[in-house]
Design goal:
Layout: H1 3-29, H2 50-58, H3 67-71, H4 76-96, H5 107-120, H6 122-130, H7 140-143
């Protein structure tokens, strides 16, 4: 084998090893394993979520729901896929410093939360939804903004 052939694995392994090492370090530093649980305190790992966490503690949902009940879809794969997508976006925002001072929910995450409202409160929401025309849309948070997070 020539010298060029033995250098290729090193040139390929170096960036892969570097990325893997940075990823493992970042996962540990950011308390990544805590996000795999249903513990609401994990959501307060980031200082920007402190207000939302404290609002949840004061809310009517504190005794009956945790963050994942409202902010991740049902089912193992959809739940952890959502957590992975959100984690990637949060990591990029915090690493780059590009995150808004006021937390803004994404359209995708808003749909997830709305589905959770409709599922848990189906006895009420089915009746409300049946009085609307099929094209009408509404958001639970239009009227109930402070339910999950007291402001």
């Amino acid at each position: 084998m020539n010298e060029k052939g033995s250098l290729a694995p090193v040139l390929l392994g170096l960036p892969i090893g570097l990325l893997l090492g940075i990823g493992i370090y970042t996962f540990g530093y950011a308390k990544g394993a805590s996000y795999m649980t249903d513990d609401p305190a994990a959501c307060a790992n980031c200082h920007v979520m402190k207000e939302q966490f404290e609002g949840w503690q004061r809310s009517s949902h504190h005794a009956v729901a945790v963050c994942n009940d409202c902010h991740t879809p049902a089912g193992f794969l959809p739940k952890y896929l959502t957590k992975a997508i959100n984690g990637m976006h949060h990591s990029m925002a915090f690493t780059s410093g590009r995150f808004p001072d006021d937390i803004i929910i994404t359209p995708r995450n808003h749909r997830v939360a709305e589905e959770a409202c409709l599922k848990c409160h189906a006895d009420i929401t089915d009746m409300v939804r049946s009085t609307r025309h099929s094209g009408d849309s509404f958001a639970c948070t239009s009227c109930h903004r402070n339910v999950g997070h007291s402001h």
